[in-house]
Amino acid sequence: MSAVRVQFINGVSDSVPNQLLDKLLQHGAMINEEMQTAKTKPRAEKAPDVIDTVMRKGHESSKTLIEALREVDPCLSRELKL
After folding, report:
1. Domain range for residue 52?
2. What is the pTM assigned to this prediction?
3. How many domains does the structure of the chain reveal?
């Protein structure tokens, strides 16, 4: 998973993390406070924060992130083989 993490961080565009945060909140994979904190960070910190927060929450939250990424950025999702 660490290789996918690095590829995600390096490959994600500026707008994708915010879109993912909104979807993660909507699906209960992240709470409002986590989302608001992450949204204030620059992209270089936001992308790792999103993926690390979700990974700490376990399989279901990670699954939600993958589904959201498939929807928000299908190209990156394919590159990551998700």
Report:
1. 2-79
2. 0.87
3. 1
